[in-house]
């Protein structure tokens, strides 16, 4: 049994997760590495209830990934208003016997895009496009609202089902235009937006790359960071668009999780160096 304060990333499959890398780096720079333990746990929807019910008093927090971001919400005692509006919890923080669910993906997406656009000197964005319609797409929608975008086009294979971005948009009072991914004319027009966020899994956005006619005013955030060199990214880079790295989203959402779990501010530079080294190792560089 663990006798030290601990946290973990949970989801399924979990072996590929980079959360342990960035959290352990953060804890080390905060002087907590010898006293805290961060691990990973393979937890699917079926085992989620038992896992949450079995948390011991030493647990300081959970990083929640797919497929548990929505399934974990009913198991919380309190859900932060932002996470409730988005419809997804990616962070669980126990305190005084109360489990509180947060969403730090919104912070990660907002910060990654804002920093990339500022580095290029781009002004306020007027239009946006989100590829995908599930949990991360809903977080992207909230992030775009924080960046001043009032209406977004969402391109997806389907919009129905639990956890849809359509329901999240209604809760947030945000207008969206829905475009089916097979409608190449409208999808191509949507991809001309000032900000494009792809929340699709690796390879799923490749067919859309042929529709891209990018310009230097555009910014792409592709949440896929392994492999980083996606067809969609290549298409936008070829037209001079600025790229907001998916790894930057991961770092900033992770840093926010560390703040919630420890009450302390981590060094994102240390987290970034550890993440880049791990990604390079996995890519054989």
UniProtKB/TrEMBL annotation:
Keywords: Amino-acid biosynthesis, Aromatic amino acid biosynthesis. The keyword Ribonucleoprotein does not apply. Gene3D superfamilies: Leucine Dehydrogenase, chain A, domain 1, NAD(P)-binding Rossmann-like Domain. The keyword Amino-acid biosynthesis applies. Signal peptide: none annotated. GO terms for molecular function: NADP binding; shikimate 3-dehydrogenase (NADP+) activity. Residues 9-92 form the Shikimate dehydrogenase substrate binding N-terminal domain. Pfam families: SDH_C, Shikimate_dh_N. Pathway: Metabolic intermediate biosynthesis; chorismate biosynthesis; chorismate from D-erythrose 4-phosphate and phosphoenolpyruvate: step 4/7. Residues 246-276 form the SDH C-terminal domain. GO terms for cellular component: cytosol. GO terms for biological process: aromatic amino acid family biosynthetic process; chorismate biosynthetic process; shikimate metabolic process. PANTHER family: BIFUNCTIONAL 3-DEHYDROQUINATE DEHYDRATASE_SHIKIMATE DEHYDROGENASE, CHLOROPLASTIC, SHIKIMATE DEHYDROGENASE. This is Shikimate dehydrogenase.
């Amino acid at each position: 049994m663990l006798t030290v304060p601990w946290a973990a990333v949970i989801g399924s499959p979990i072996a590929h997760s980079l959360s342990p890398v960035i959290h352990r780096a953060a804890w080390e720079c905060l002087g907590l590495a010898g006293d805290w333990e961060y691990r990973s746990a393979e937890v699917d929807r079926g085992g989620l209830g038992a896992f949450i019910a079995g948390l011991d008093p030493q647990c300081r927090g959970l990083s929640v990934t797919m497929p548990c971001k929505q399934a974990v919400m009913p198991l919380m005692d309190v859900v932060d208003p932002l996470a409730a509006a988005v419809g997804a919890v990616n962070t669980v923080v126990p305190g005084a016997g109360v489990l509180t669910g947060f969403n730090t993906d919104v912070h990660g997406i907002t910060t990654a895009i804002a920093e990339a656009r500022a580095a290029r000197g781009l002004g306020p964005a007027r239009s946006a496009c989100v590829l995908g319609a599930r949990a991360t797409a809903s977080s992207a929608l909230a992030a775009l609202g924080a960046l001043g975008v009032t209406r977004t086009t969402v391109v997806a294979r389907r919009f129905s089902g639990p956890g849809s971005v359509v329901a999240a948009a209604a809760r947030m009072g945000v207008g969206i235009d829905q475009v089916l991914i097979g409608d190449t004319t409208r999808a191509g027009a949507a991809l001309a937006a000032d900000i494009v966020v792809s929340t699709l899994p690796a390879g799923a956005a490749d067919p859309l790359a042929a529709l891209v006619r990018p310009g230097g005013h555009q910014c792409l955030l592709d949440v896929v960071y392994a492999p980083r060199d996606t067809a969609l990214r290549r298409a936008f880079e070829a037209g001079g668009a600025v790229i907001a790295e998916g790894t930057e989203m991961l770092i900033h959402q992770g840093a926010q999780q560390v703040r919630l779990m420890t009450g302390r501010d981590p060094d994102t530079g240390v987290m970034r160096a550890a993440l880049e080294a791990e990604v390079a190792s996995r890519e054989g560089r």
